[in-house]
Amino acid sequence: MNDQYILAIETSCDETAAAIILNGREIISNVVASQIESQKRFGGVVPEVASRHHVEQITMIIEETLEKANMQPSELTAVAVTEGPGLVGALLIGINAAKAFAFAHSLPLIPVHHIAGHIYANELVEPMQFPLLALVVSGGHTELVFMKEHGSFEVIGETRDDAAGEAYDKVARVLNMPYPGGPHIDRLAHEAEEGVEFPRAWLEENSYDFSFSGLKSAVINYKHNMDQRGEEIDPQKVAKGFQDSVVEVLTTKTLRAARQYQVKQVIAAGGVSANKGLRTSLEQAFEEAKISFVVPPLKLCTDNAAMIGAAAAHMYNAGVRGNLAMNGLPGKELKSWI
Amino acid sequence: MIWLGIETSNSPLSIAIVKDGQIVEEIVQNEKLTHSVTVMPTIEELFRKANLNPADLDAIAVSEGPGSYTGLRIGVTIAKTLAWTLKKPLVGVSSLQVLAANGQGFAGVICSLFDARRQNVYAAAYDGETMQPVIQDHHNSIGGLLEQLQLLNTPVLFIGLDAVNFKEVITAQLGNQAIFASTSLALPRGSKLIELAQKQSLPSVEEVHNFVPKYHRITEAEANWIKDQKKGQ
Ligand SMILES: [Zn+2]
């Protein structure tokens, strides 16, 4: 078999990213241009600003990716791109750049689901073992995905309101922490011995769904009540109370699902899986349960194109192809490709 | 010399291939379809009909704005990516000038405009003979634009799909000075875009990376942020 080199492009939110992946396992080059410095001004991602930055960056990022790999377009096997979900205006930049590039060099296109990408980031670390359970937690997603084999996805739980990362950002704002809030809350939480007691949203007994808006409101109410009493809140204790609630619910539901589905491996993916509190709790739970647990390194947890290339490699081998009429799908559902 | 012209600044779409000053292929449509879905298949189809390969191109022209933000970005992203990866120069032309060029030869000024909502427009005015700008591309209230045009004291040919949205207020203010172009001139054409691009000197291929749409407006979020910064001082 000839070596397969996939150029992957990802622009679903505020990261302009490209990568070249060899045979679905090896990163040849991986370039990410973050917009955090710009978006920080607004305390969150402004879609129009994100789209403008993507147009500024896109060709430079792809060029840098090819240069770092020391490769010519003629040596590539295919072009992969995130089709959705994400911000539509942002997705469109990556998709149209991918289509123009593929047309210029007569290369096949592969449309990739962003969450499949997050899960497949693990293939760049070690081969996945099936059946598998993935917990995908980021600013936009909180999902439990069961995989019987490569290319097979069953979403068994998802958030009914805010994504975990979104709740982190909102609580960070209550505590006057800058965007993105996750790392600040994580740090503060580790500085407190004891947290403020906040509720846990377990939902129905057998549900694997999540809900974080109640918890977020509880934090806001707590601050409000303290303000009215003229008392100062202790940000460390609030952060710890909030994080403990998020981590306990995520860990408990993931563990229960892992047991019910009798999986061989549990994967944590997405930006929030970089959270130390969550990582430690999951590691401990699955060590006790004797189930293999993996989290990709930080730079593969946050949005990147290497993960898109890793998923695309399997899709390419399964015969999945896009075409020049591909559109951005902001609400794209995670569907099996086998 | 083979040129590809891409015009997606508003809901109409036009793509053209011009070889040595002759139109080889051109498509002009007004179907209100998503540019993201239609542009690349249309480009591919025109290349196939013209029996050309992407590598045969010598230069690319694109409508750079103003217009719909998403439309501009789709056209510019495609033009930029093709130009960069094929190592060809990329020339940007004002989308208002491309539209105004449909009326070239008019004795007076040609005013092209796009509806920017809430009684605002993106607009410019060009000398009907030379196509030199008399009023530069800008964002304005329709009233503000008409005041400027009135002062020119010369017949004004209004051109573009959106001109009819303002017909009443234009006529009220300019009376006989205003003339409305026929609908056959209302859609921008890729061949006109290329014609205008050919008048510019070709930029170096390295400049492609810095090419961005000319929105003529900063985002609302940035405008508010700037306001807040000033308040804080
Ligand atoms: Zn993501």
Automatic annotation (TrEMBL), chain A:
<feature type="binding site">
    <location>
        <position position="118"/>
    </location>
    <ligand>
        <name>Fe cation</name>
    </ligand>
</feature>
<feature type="binding site">
    <location>
        <position position="303"/>
    </location>
    <ligand>
        <name>Fe cation</name>
    </ligand>
</feature>
<feature type="binding site">
    <location>
        <begin position="136"/>
        <end position="140"/>
    </location>
    <ligand>
        <name>substrate</name>
    </ligand>
</feature>
<dbReference type="InterPro" id="IPR043129">
    <property type="entry name" value="ATPase_NBD"/>
</dbReference>
<keyword id="KW-0963">Cytoplasm</keyword>
<protein>
    <recommendedName>
        <fullName>tRNA N6-adenosine threonylcarbamoyltransferase</fullName>
        <ecNumber>2.3.1.234</ecNumber>
    </recommendedName>
</protein>
<dbReference type="InterPro" id="IPR017861">
    <property type="entry name" value="KAE1/TsaD"/>
</dbReference>
<feature type="binding site">
    <location>
        <position position="169"/>
    </location>
    <ligand>
        <name>substrate</name>
    </ligand>
</feature>
<feature type="binding site">
    <location>
        <position position="275"/>
    </location>
    <ligand>
        <name>substrate</name>
    </ligand>
</feature>
<comment type="function">
    <text>Required for the formation of a threonylcarbamoyl group on adenosine at position 37 (t(6)A37) in tRNAs that read codons beginning with adenine. Is involved in the transfer of the threonylcarbamoyl moiety of threonylcarbamoyl-AMP (TC-AMP) to the N6 group of A37, together with TsaE and TsaB. TsaD likely plays a direct catalytic role in this reaction.</text>
</comment>
<comment type="similarity">
    <text>Belongs to the KAE1 / TsaD family.</text>
</comment>
<feature type="binding site">
    <location>
        <position position="114"/>
    </location>
    <ligand>
        <name>Fe cation</name>
    </ligand>
</feature>
<feature type="binding site">
    <location>
        <position position="186"/>
    </location>
    <ligand>
        <name>substrate</name>
    </ligand>
</feature>
<feature type="binding site">
    <location>
        <position position="182"/>
    </location>
    <ligand>
        <name>substrate</name>
    </ligand>
</feature>
<dbReference type="InterPro" id="IPR022450">
    <property type="entry name" value="TsaD"/>
</dbReference>
<keyword id="KW-0819">tRNA processing</keyword>
<keyword id="KW-0479">Metal-binding</keyword>
<dbReference type="GO" id="GO:0061711">
    <property type="term" value="F:tRNA N(6)-L-threonylcarbamoyladenine synthase activity"/>
</dbReference>
<keyword id="KW-0808">Transferase</keyword>
<feature type="domain" description="Gcp-like">
    <location>
        <begin position="26"/>
        <end position="309"/>
    </location>
</feature>
<keyword id="KW-0408">Iron</keyword>
<dbReference type="Pfam" id="PF00814">
    <property type="entry name" value="TsaD"/>
</dbReference>
UniProtKB/TrEMBL annotation, chain B:
<keyword id="KW-0808">Transferase</keyword>
<protein>
    <submittedName>
        <fullName>tRNA (Adenosine(37)-N6)-threonylcarbamoyltransferase complex dimerization subunit type 1 TsaB</fullName>
        <ecNumber>2.3.1.234</ecNumber>
    </submittedName>
</protein>
<dbReference type="InterPro" id="IPR022496">
    <property type="entry name" value="T6A_TsaB"/>
</dbReference>
<keyword id="KW-0012">Acyltransferase</keyword>
<dbReference type="Pfam" id="PF00814">
    <property type="entry name" value="TsaD"/>
</dbReference>
<dbReference type="InterPro" id="IPR000905">
    <property type="entry name" value="Gcp-like_dom"/>
</dbReference>
<dbReference type="GO" id="GO:0061711">
    <property type="term" value="F:tRNA N(6)-L-threonylcarbamoyladenine synthase activity"/>
</dbReference>
<dbReference type="InterPro" id="IPR043129">
    <property type="entry name" value="ATPase_NBD"/>
</dbReference>
<feature type="domain" description="Gcp-like">
    <location>
        <begin position="27"/>
        <end position="225"/>
    </location>
</feature>
